[in-house]
Design goal:
Strand order of the largest sheet: 5-6-8-7-9-10-11-14
CATH class of the largest domain: Alpha Beta
Structural class: alpha/beta
Radius of gyration: 31 Å
Number of domains: 2
Distance between the termini: 61 Å
Strand content: 5-15%
CATH topology of the largest domain: Rossmann fold
CATH architecture of the largest domain: 3-Layer(aba) Sandwich
Number of helices: 17
Largest sheet: 8 strands, mixed
CATH superfamily of the largest domain: Alpha/Beta hydrolase fold, catalytic domain
Shape: globular
Helix content: 40-55%
Length: about 575
């Protein structure tokens, strides 16, 4: 598709063709009604019997079915033409808007898309000192419009080609074929259910025109944004809408709580000592929960708007910060990515552990993912490569908090593991070009989530696995994680109380379980990943102290030693260059 072709496209002609098919569809329907009345019904009342009559009635019934199928196929052609008009019109409008802005900024757009402008400050046609940036932005819009038109053209061509083939070879007269074609057309207007195979989701998305995709983002953003198999850029656009709505919804609910009830009931009101007012207790419970969610969502919005850390992560950040998931299920969900995982050659996805929450995603967790990104970029440069990295922070489950025993159980890891497995499968499905080198990372309880993800049917869509501060991953050997033991990397600080936590049986040497299950390399959730018997590659990290070692694997306190550089080497595909440490 070129600029002139799209600019000169006559959308009205497509609409005229669509209207013509509507008339044909209507006329064909009337023909079927006449057939039914003048042929089928009359023969049915003719009292014609015998062998010939039986054969004739069978053929007549078959012909009636074929006519209904043909009518259904004709109606589908009309729908395709309507989608074509909508898609090309949207792309054309985007192109014209970009060309108008070029003209208003005293720029000239050549037929091949090159933009030129007068650079002489003394000229009446001087385009200004920001012309180059403006030209780049307009050029990008022109390219996007042409891509939209190309995509619509290919999508519509495929759909029309299919229907034309059906009409030519007669398969369009088959009721089952017409039913399947109708179902496929209907599916284009329905968002696939959560949990649908990501490859199928991607196929569905590709079957939409760009205009239809944008319509889905605007009207079904809460579904599109969290659906694995939808491209990262579209998820980001959808989730930013959802995030604003979540913030507004929480604020509306807070405003609707009304004034604070009095905290205590008097002696007279209770016929005894003063007690806390039940109305206050319930009001406070609701308020605290809403405020926690609101603060978390706002922290993420502030990060996206560039209001923290000197604008890092704002609208014009490099790399871009994408919001790949957001929701209010359970404790809240949030997935962010520095860089586009659909385009990056190396993709990292970190699962956090104990005490992770929404508020952290916009704050320190975003910085952790950025540190991983920066470290992988540096590793690529050290190896004379052009960096191509995306670093994802994945809070797609209810991480255990400090207020209960959940961290000791596997149920959250099992549920989170299934979701994480689906997420990485989605990244595989939407990636452009050759498959990316994917590194799955788990910190603390998040390492157990990664471990459980590897046990899902089909395994985990990852090439390398990094486990740091791990209390165990639910298996006894690195070879059981599905990527090969030599592609499992473990970091365990000497003074990390979580990575050194013994198995429950080891705490009770007098119990029967101790005799049956306990062994020197046991951790809380299986074999200690840093042990020799587990069989992973252990990389060097700083010993740290009891207070900071568990949280410093990604340089949070600047005391992680070789840990973060080693992580960067693995993420960039250079795990063979890590500084090593002997297993314990």
């Amino acid at each position: 598709m070129d600029i002139k072709t799209l600019y000169d496209a006559n959308i009205n002609n497509i609409t005229i063709a669509k209207n013509a098919y509507d008339k044909l569809f209507s006329a064909f329907g009337q023909h079927i009604e006449s057939w039914q009345h003048d042929v089928v019904d009359r023969l049915g009342h003719s009292e014609w019997t015998g062998t010939a009559a039986g054969h004739a009635n069978t053929r007549i019934q078959s012909l009636g079915t074929e006519l209904q199928a043909a009518k259904q196929e004709l109606g589908l052609v009309s729908k395709v033409l309507a989608d074509a008009a909508e898609g090309i019109a949207a792309a054309q409008a985007h192109l014209i808007s970009a060309l108008d802005d070029a003209k208003n900024n005293k720029m000239t757009v050549a037929p091949d898309g090159r933009i030129t402008w007068d650079k002489d400050p003394n000229s009446a046609n001087y385009a200004g000192d920001k012309a180059e940036a403006t030209a780049q932005e307009i050029s990008k819009r022109i390219t996007t419009a042409l891509t939209e038109a190309d995509h619509t053209d290919q999508t519509i061509s495929a759909r029309l080609g299919h229907l034309a083939t059906n009409a030519t070879n007669g398969t369009g007269l088959d009721a089952a074929t017409a039913k399947a074609d109708q179902a496929a057309a209907d599916a284009l207007s329905q968002v696939p259910a959560a949990g649908t195979d990501p490859a199928s989701v991607k196929k569905w998305w590709n079957g939409l025109t760009d205009a239809q995709q944008q319509h889905m983002i605007q009207t079904e953003h809460d579904k599109i944004g969290n659906l694995d198999g939808i491209p990262a850029a579209a998820r980001n656009d959808a989730n930013r809408i959802t995030l604003k709505n979540l913030i507004q919804d929480r604020q509306t609910q807070l405003d609707g709580l009304g004034p604070e009830p009095k905290k205590m009931l008097s002696v007279a009101e209770t016929n005894g000592g003063p007690v806390e007012n039940p109305d206050y207790t319930e009001w406070k419970r609701k308020r605290d929960a809403l405020l926690k969610n609101l603060d978390g969502f706002k922290s993420i919005q502030d990060r996206l708007d560039g209001k923290v850390d000197g604008g890092v992560g704002g609208p014009h950040s490099d790399p871009p910060l994408l919001l790949l998931g957001i929701g209010d299920q359970g404790q809240g969900r949030a997935i962010i990515s520095w860089g586009d995982p659909d385009k990056a050659r190396n993709v990292s996805s970190l699962v956090p552990g104990l005490n992770s929450n929404l508020a952290g995603v916009g704050g320190g967790d975003a910085k952790t993912a950025k540190r991983i990104y920066d470290s992988a970029v540096q590793s690529a440069k050290d190896n004379n490569e052009t960096p191509s990295v995306a670093s994802v922070f994945w809070l797609g489950y209810d991480a255990p908090q400090l207020d209960g025993p959940a961290v000791l159980m596997k149920d959250r890891a099992e549920e989170g593991g299934a979701a994480y497995n689906q997420f990485l499968a989605g990244l595989r499905a939407t990636h452009e070009g050759a498959p990316a080198h994917v590194t799955a990372q788990g910190h603390s309880y998040g390492s157990l989530v990664v471990g459980q993800a590897t046990q899902q049917t089909g395994g985990l869509a990852a090439d390398d696995i990094i486990l740091v501060g791990s209390p165990g991953v639910g298996v006894d050997k690195a070879s059981q994680l599905g990527v090969g033991a030599d592609h499992v990397y473990v970091g365990a600080a000497k003074n990390d109380p979580i990575a050194s936590a013994p198995a429950p049986e080891m705490l009770f040497p007098d119990s029967a379980a101790y005799e049956t299950f306990a062994h020197p390399n046991a951790s809380w959730h299986g074999t200690d990943p840093a042990s020799q018997s587990f069989g992973a590659q252990r990389f060097s990290v700083a010993d740290g102290t009891t207070f900071d070692s568990h949280d410093d694997y990604f340089g949070d306190h600047g005391k992680g030693g070789d840990s973060l550089p080693n992580v960067g080497k693995i993420v960039s595909g250079h795990g063979n260059t890590i500084t090593r440490e002997d297993p314990r």
